[in-house]
Amino acid sequence: EYPSLNIAAAVQVVAYELRVAAGNTLSQPPGRHRLATAGEMELFYRHLEDTLIAVDFLDPDNPRQLMRRLRRLFGRVQPDENEINILRGILTAVQRRHP
Known about the structure:
Blueprint: H1 3-22, H2 38-54, H3 66-77, H4 81-97
């Protein structure tokens, strides 16, 4: 009754099987560093939170949803290790100005 749906489903299955056969590693674009690890992201989030508290942007007694939203934001972006190092460098510079 709906032949186009059958074709679409078949194409989807074939594409999936080809992807599985190719392996789970996606090639990175040339010049791209590896994505930041979960551990590196956690260190960044702690650094970010400490800095936001130091500059009175985040009230630790009333944090609301700020850190959760920032985690979601950076999770969508998927920064690489170099980008996380840049962001942490910025946070360190801010902390030096606001000890």
